[in-house]
What we know:
mainly beta, Immunoglobulin-like, five-stranded antiparallel beta sheet, two-stranded antiparallel sheet, 7 strands, about 0% helix
Amino acid sequence: MNWSTATELNNKGFEIERSDDNKDFITRGFVEGSGTTTERHEYTFTEEALNGKVYYRLKQIDHDGNYNYSKSIEINSIYVNNFELYQNYPNPFNPTTK
């Protein structure tokens, strides 16, 4: 997940939250914010690939405890953990398969 800010005011950081149903979110990680700045900042969060549809949102937290949520985004992914090639008869790759 990648996001950026144009400016920040009192930004402690971002909690990254994930949900299977876009209703019940759980915290998956935290990315430190840049406090107060007028400069653009780029942020990244990575976790293991998942199968199927999941939703993510950011919880931006200020140093004084106030927070705001981003809109959630939907990710629909297919994770393949192995590939197999079974008997290929009749062989469409004649004469060999690698």
